[in-house]
């Protein structure tokens, strides 16, 4: 009787654990424990429209594209387009951000310029950002940085804790801006939605050893390198992340080892 | 920005594909989508 019970428990864990819908975090901080009436599902990035309704005349030789999703269901699309005042290759000093998520990047107040740029790096300070999908929410200190090898963003979610990206299991897969809307990476910043996880340099485990398993906590993006993370101070002291290693034993049975990830770095 | 801790991989674990299901503990006040992360187990120096 023990074996069937064990498999039943494992089945319930896998079925419930990997369910694609959950209820939203409670309250404006996204930290609440009780469940709200709003059902939230995992975002299907394949269904996200890849078009921008209205673009300004772009001058850069190779404009670059990225997409942020806001709103509890990721329903508000905020396109970012990196452009330049001159058609010189590799220098980006203009950034369009569709702040109101209406698909029109020609709106007043959605063109940002920077003096902090050269051929390898551009930094744009957006500042306060009124969330187009979360009523009454304003994020602060929004900053976007492009480099030849990466794209970084950071903001204080609702003026509180930091959310930033983009990350993945190793630096080599960190997302870069796309050369068109079709290959633009999609990012989901914030922590109002149920949180997700990805690991950092922990994809290879050695049998018979103890491995330091490291995870990001945040929101999955459209690719493994487009993860939006919270920082290591997000969870209050005493709160941990749980990891269950599910493996096949030498005898061919599925087994599991469960641990709490309590350390932070 | 990372949360981490030691995961003991038993000697009897067969080399090959495995997964780590990451989530918040049942009593956590935080909500999450449990995430199954694919990992690879490689044989140790002293395979059982």
Model description:
The complex is a heterodimer of chains A (265) and B (48). Chain A is mainly β. Helices cover 6% and strands 39% of the residues of chain A. Chain A has one helix at residues 2-17; strands at residues 21-23, 39-41, 64-70, 76-83, 94-97, 111-113, 121-130, 138-147, 150-156, 162-167, 186-187, 196-199, 204-206, 209-219, 227-230, 241-248, 254-261, 263-264. In chain A, the strands form 4 sheets. A 7-stranded antiparallel sheet of chain A has the order 7-8-9-10-15-14-12, with no helix packed on it. In chain A, strands 6-5-4-3-11 form a 5-stranded mixed sheet, with no helix packed on it. In chain A, strands 1-2 form a two-stranded antiparallel ribbon. In chain A, strand 16 (241-248) and strand 17 (254-261) form a beta hairpin. The radius of gyration of chain A is 21 Å and the shape is globular. Chain A starts with a helix and ends with a strand. Mean pLDDT of chain A is 89; it is low at 8-17 and 26-37. Chain B has 48 residues and is mainly β. Helices cover 0% and strands 48% of the residues of chain B. Chain B is built from no helices and 3 strands. Chain B has a two-stranded antiparallel sheet with strand order 2-3. The mean pLDDT of chain B is 93. Chains A and B meet through helix 1, strand 12, strand 13, strand 14 and strand 16 of A and strand 1, strand 2 and strand 3 of B. Strand 13 of chain A pairs parallel with strand 3 (35-42) of chain B, so a sheet runs across the interface.
